[in-house]
UniProtKB/TrEMBL annotation:
PROSITE patterns: ATP_GRASP (PS50975). One of its GO terms (molecular function) is ligase activity. InterPro entries: ATP-dep_AA_Ligase, ATP-grasp, ATP_grasp_subdomain_1. It comes from Micromonospora sagamiensis. This is D-Ala-D-Ala ligase-like protein. Keywords: ATP-binding, Ligase, Nucleotide-binding. Gene3D superfamilies: 3.40.50.20, ATP-grasp fold, A domain (3.30.1490.20), ATP-grasp fold, B domain (3.30.470.20).
C-alpha cells in the first residue's frame, strides 16, 4: 500500500450523512468502510480500499473485521464513527488497534449522562440534580429515596440514550415505583425536572476555542417529538443572552476537556433567567440542522467532524463563516398510528413566507416508526430577519401543515 493515510469508517447512514468522500481531498487519504447494508448506496465504494457489510456495528462484531482489514491493508491512521451510536465503538477500536484519537474514557464523558453532569457540576456549573440507580434495590423503597432527594416531578431516562428515547416524566411516588419495576436500573438514572425552555449550542472547537458556534432555542422539545409533536428550532438573535449562552457552553466544554471536537450541547433557560446544563454530544446536531448551517453559515458540520476525528485541518477557516440574520428548522414526527402510508400532504411554499426549503414525504411512502429525525413526516427550513419572525413562521407552519395517512399493513 502507498503512504497515503488510511481511515476506517463505521457507517449506518443511508443518506448524505454517509458521503464521507466529500470530506477528504484526494491527497489526504483513502477509506475502508464497515457499513450496515442500508448504508451502502451512498458510499463511494468505487474508490474505497474495501467495503464490508456487517450485520451490526457492535464492537465485538466489527473488531475482528477491523483486524482482518489491518492485516491486509496495513495500519489505519484513524477510525471514524460520526453517529452517536458509534462513538464508543470507534473509541474502543482505536484502543484495540493502537490508533490515535478519542479514547473510551474521554468519549464516555459525552455518552454517559451522570458522568458528564458530575464533571460539569464539579466545575461549579449548574446541572439538574440526579441520582444513579442501584440494581437490586426494591422499586418502592428506591422511589421513596428518589422523591426525598429530588422531589417531584422527576425524569427517568437511559444513561446513554439518544433523542429522548425511553425518557419518562413521573409525577407521583407510585408512578415512579411502577416505572422502576422491571427496569434495567444500571442503565438508567433519575434527575429533577427543570422548568424552562430548552436551548442548544452547536459548533466545533479547535485549540480549546470555538472555531464555529451557534445558539438556538427549540420550539417544543426532543421529548415532545418522541411523543408525537413537531420539533423546531430558531437561531437566537445576537445580544446578551446569546453571549451568555455560548460562554456557558464553553465553560461546560472546558469541564469536559473538549479541546478539539464537534459538539451539540443542550441547556435550560429557566423563568428565573438561570442557565442549567442538560447534556452534550460529541457530534453535530441531527435532523435539518447540518443543512441549515451549511446554507446560512457556510459551514459543513459533518465535514468538520470527520476531519477533527482524524486530526486533519478545518474544511473551512473560521473567517469564511457567515453571520445570518435569522433562521430555523422544523420537523414533523412519523404519522401515527404506525405503520402508516401517506395519502396526501400540503406544500406550504407561498403560504409561509419564511420557508426557503421543504422536504415532504411522497404519496404512498410508508412510515414504520424507525425514522428518527431523518425519515420524518415533513421537514422545513426557514430564513428571516430576526428570531421573532422565524419563530412566528415556524408556529404558522405547525398550524397549517397537513399530512393525511392511512393504516399500512
Amino acid at each position: 500500500m502507498s503512504d497515503v493515510p488510511r481511515y476506517l469508517v463505521l457507517n449506518r447512514f443511508g443518506n448524505e450523512f454517509g458521503e464521507y468522500h466529500r470530506y477528504l481531498r484526494p491527497h489526504e487519504g483513502r477509506m475502508a468502510y464497515l457499513t450496515l447494508a442500508a448504508g451502502t448506496s451512498v458510499l463511494d465504494t468505487a474508490n474505497a480500499l474495501d467495503t464490508v457489510v456487517v450485520t451490526d456495528l457492535d464492537f465485538h462484531t466489527v473488531l475482528p473485521v477491523a483486524r482482518a482489514l489491518t492485516a491486509r491493508l496495513g495500519s489505519f491512521s484513524g477510525v471514524v464513527g460520526i453517529s452517536e451510536w458509534d462513538l464508543l465503538t470507534a473509541a474502543r477500536l482505536r484502543e484495540a488497534l493502537g490508533l490515535p484519537g478519542w479514547n473510551h474514557e474521554f468519549t464516555r464523558r459525552f455518552r454517559d449522562k451522570p458522568y458528564m453532569k458530575e464533571r460539569v457540576a464539579a466545575a461549579g456549573l449548574r446541572t439538574p440534580r440526579f441520582t444513579e440507580l442501584v440494581p437490586g434495590t426494591d422499586p418502592t423503597l428506591l422511589a421513596k429515596d428518589i422523591v426525598t432527594s429530588l422531589g417531584l416531578p422527576v425524569i427517568v431516562k437511559p444513561r446513554s440514550g439518544v433523542a429522548s428515547a425511553g425518557v419518562r416524566r413521573v409525577d407521583t411516588a407510585e408512578q415512579l415505583a411502577e416505572a422502576l419495576t422491571g427496569l434495567d436500573l444500571a442503565a438508567h438514572e433519575c434527575e429533577e425536572l427543570i422548568e424552562g425552555r430548552v436551548l442548544h449550542v452547536d459548533g466545533v472547537r479547535r485549540g480549546g476555542r470555538f472555531h464555529f458556534v451557534s445558539a438556538s432555542a427549540y420550539v417544543n422539545t426532543c421529548f415532545d417529538f418522541a411523543n408525537g409533536s413537531p420539533l423546531g428550532s430558531v437561531l437566537l438573535d445576537p445580544g446578551p443572552l446569546r453571549d451568555r449562552v455560548t460562554d456557558f457552553a464553553g465553560r461546560c466544554l472546558d469541564a469536559l476537556d473538549l479541546v478539539d471536537g464537534p459538539f451539540h450541547l443542550e441547556l435550560f433557560h429557566t423563568p428565573g433567567d438561570e442557565l442549567v446544563f442538560l447534556e452534550v454530544g460529541l457530534r453535530p446536531g441531527g435532523g435539518p440542522l447540518p443543512d441549515l448551517h451549511r446554507e446560512l453559515f457556510g459551514i459543513d458540520l459533518l465535514a468538520e467532524t470527520f476531519r477533527l476525528t482524524v486530526g486533519l485541518p478545518p474544511a473551512t477557516p473560521a473567517s469564511a463563516h457567515t453571520e445570518p440574520t435569522g433562521g430555523g428548522w422544523l420537523i414533523f414526527p412519523e404519522p401515527r398510528p404506525l405503520p402508516s402510508r401517506v395519502v396526501a400532504r400540503t406544500s406550504l411554499r407561498g403560504v409561509v413566507d419564511g420557508i426557503h426549503a421543504e422536504v415532504l414525504p411522497e404519496v404512498g411512502e410508508v412510515f414504520d416508526g424507525t425514522g428518527g429525525y431523518l425519515h420524518v413526516g415533513g421537514a422545513f427550513r426557514f430564513r428571516g430577519p430576526d428570531e421573532a419572525t422565524v419563530r412566528r413562521d415556524v408556529l404558522r407552519t405547525i398550524e397549517c401543515y397537513r399530512l393525511t395517512t392511512e393504516p399500512a399493513p
